[in-house]
């Protein structure tokens, strides 16, 4: 079109050189006028009349060009014949004009007509494509330029493309850059970085506007896809995670899960979890892919109650975030209480007051709360108590009296248990020794002792051993024995016995004579070695046992050296006539004093017999005249001891009616005539002497009794041995050798029967006793039998009963 236009103009110029130019006219019309619109009144403008046009057959000459304008000759006007589009006529060429000639004939002339076509805004700017797609990474830097397609507006001048606008213009600026050829180049410049996470797809409208009136515009859509870049770090969902795990939980126990998110997409959004290698990292394990935190070791509440783990979350681009996991360790009752003995006594004295502290303990339980609350108890049956002084401190105290003698050692078991469920406990045993205090006196094995010793012992013989025990210990229990001062019959007891201090053996100091002392008692003291010492005493009664050390003594008939005493038997005496009675005593006792009488020798054995038990000499047959006047009998008196002892006595018997007969008949018997003559005198004298002696004896007996009574009071009413009473010895004070002493005696023999068969012999009343001057009296003892005499009320039967067992025969002499 443009080429064509140029060509046409050149043609038009060349034509001008051939024809006579009479004038020219120019018009200016806008394009796109409707057909028939008036362009101009050419007749008038050229000063030609319509007739001339008619006559000259005026016509438009456009050469080969298209005729857009026609000539109306009748009216002399130029009208629009066809639509004129300036853009197709001239394109961008300015100015755009139609040049043609109007040719007249008659005369031939031509006029040049120029019609300038002015532009009207009939074309909007337009883009070649309706949309443009871009993929831009969000990491694109600001200032990045993206060339846009430019719009084309066919209009020219002011109606041409004027400007561009981009909407929305958040991220991009629009920039137009003029080029050398006058065209404009359009770019978008990244003003603000893109964010895929925020806006992945963007749609922009680029609008191009022209400058016409009214303004026209064209648009193009720019679709931007924002490509992801790893521009977002992973972010923990919570800055801090709290979790708990019980101690001793097995490895692999799930604790918690840490989550983080990454806004980036795909690979850029993949989060890796990691616990930073600090502190207790080895105890925990984190799954790098899903953030699961599990236990990887053994957690112990007592070592650490809380773990703070730093967790790092990162994406492949090494962008990262950190958060924290706080793991509380929950206590379980896994520790028994531990008992520490802070101090303890190994030994306490048995006299300690209740409440004495014997041990101090410190109890530790590292568990918490009830798992760590500890209670302590002691084993049963110990006299101790446990007390809590302050938390975790306990004291063990005595809570009752101690007695080493009952229990010398205690094993005190302290058991401490916590209040966890189940409860754990531990225990410790304290061994406590109780030390001795001298709180026990020695105690004899018996309340009293009786010991027996046979008389005639050797001095120094050990009689007996006393033994006392002391419940205390060691020195406090070392018993020594000693004799307590007392006297026996006025003699210090120490001259009778001695006690071995260590062994308690009692020794006789002297030889004892049963006939002098039958028993005695004393006290032995046992004393321990404590400080102060304690002691006790015991009564020891020593009973002396008889030995057959005395032969029987014949009291009657009295044996004289030279004189002859004869018993008279009348020749008419019957069978069983009691001739006389041999009286003997034995100072021993019991069997040793049990006497029996036997006929040893006799002139006529067939005439007499001797009572085995009573010593009575009786006739066995009728005495006859044929029998010898003088009969001589020898009687043996034997005791029953082992071995037995005996005495013999000679009894003279005269078979006669009267004493003178005897004298005359028996020359043997008549030895001392003078003696017989003075018999009466001596009898009177003897009676006086005997009376005197009797009174003296009475006085002595009474004194002795008083003394003994007082003595018994003094000696704690104890059964001290009775001081035997020895009657004074009878001696021949007159020196005559004759003791005209009449005994009225009785012999009482207890036998099996309850009643006492006392036979009273009155020999002396009939018979004459003639004593040899050398003979001594009989020592008579009144001793145990005295109780019978003293206490006539006492039940005789009982005494008989006891004596019978020994078969003791009692001989009681009563001075007549
Ligand atoms: C105390 O324990 C010890 C050692 O176990 C033991 O030999 C002793 O007999 C016990 N004592 C008592 C009084 O139980
Ligand atoms: C002997 O023991 C008794 C108690 O058994 C006591 O009363 C007495 O005083 C003691 N005698 C001496 C001399 O210690």
From TrEMBL:
<keyword id="KW-0472">Membrane</keyword>
<keyword id="KW-0106">Calcium</keyword>
<dbReference type="GO" id="GO:0005509">
    <property type="term" value="F:calcium ion binding"/>
</dbReference>
<dbReference type="Pfam" id="PF00028">
    <property type="entry name" value="Cadherin"/>
</dbReference>
<keyword id="KW-0325">Glycoprotein</keyword>
<feature type="domain" description="Cadherin">
    <location>
        <begin position="237"/>
        <end position="339"/>
    </location>
</feature>
<feature type="domain" description="Cadherin">
    <location>
        <begin position="340"/>
        <end position="444"/>
    </location>
</feature>
<dbReference type="InterPro" id="IPR020894">
    <property type="entry name" value="Cadherin_CS"/>
</dbReference>
<dbReference type="GO" id="GO:0009653">
    <property type="term" value="P:anatomical structure morphogenesis"/>
</dbReference>
<keyword id="KW-0677">Repeat</keyword>
<dbReference type="InterPro" id="IPR015919">
    <property type="entry name" value="Cadherin-like_sf"/>
</dbReference>
<protein>
    <recommendedName>
        <fullName>Cadherin domain-containing protein</fullName>
    </recommendedName>
</protein>
<feature type="domain" description="Cadherin">
    <location>
        <begin position="59"/>
        <end position="127"/>
    </location>
</feature>
<dbReference type="InterPro" id="IPR032455">
    <property type="entry name" value="Cadherin_C"/>
</dbReference>
<keyword id="KW-1133">Transmembrane helix</keyword>
<keyword id="KW-1003">Cell membrane</keyword>
<feature type="domain" description="Cadherin">
    <location>
        <begin position="569"/>
        <end position="669"/>
    </location>
</feature>
<dbReference type="Pfam" id="PF08266">
    <property type="entry name" value="Cadherin_2"/>
</dbReference>
<feature type="transmembrane region" description="Helical">
    <location>
        <begin position="679"/>
        <end position="704"/>
    </location>
</feature>
<dbReference type="InterPro" id="IPR013164">
    <property type="entry name" value="Cadherin_N"/>
</dbReference>
<keyword id="KW-0812">Transmembrane</keyword>
<feature type="signal peptide">
    <location>
        <begin position="1"/>
        <end position="23"/>
    </location>
</feature>
<dbReference type="InterPro" id="IPR002126">
    <property type="entry name" value="Cadherin-like_dom"/>
</dbReference>
<feature type="domain" description="Cadherin">
    <location>
        <begin position="128"/>
        <end position="236"/>
    </location>
</feature>
<dbReference type="InterPro" id="IPR050174">
    <property type="entry name" value="Protocadherin/Cadherin-CA"/>
</dbReference>
<keyword id="KW-0130">Cell adhesion</keyword>
<dbReference type="Pfam" id="PF16492">
    <property type="entry name" value="Cadherin_C_2"/>
</dbReference>
<keyword id="KW-0732">Signal</keyword>
<dbReference type="GO" id="GO:0005886">
    <property type="term" value="C:plasma membrane"/>
</dbReference>
<dbReference type="GO" id="GO:0007156">
    <property type="term" value="P:homophilic cell adhesion via plasma membrane adhesion molecules"/>
</dbReference>
<comment type="function">
    <text>Potential calcium-dependent cell-adhesion protein. May be involved in the establishment and maintenance of specific neuronal connections in the brain.</text>
</comment>
<feature type="domain" description="Cadherin">
    <location>
        <begin position="445"/>
        <end position="554"/>
    </location>
</feature>
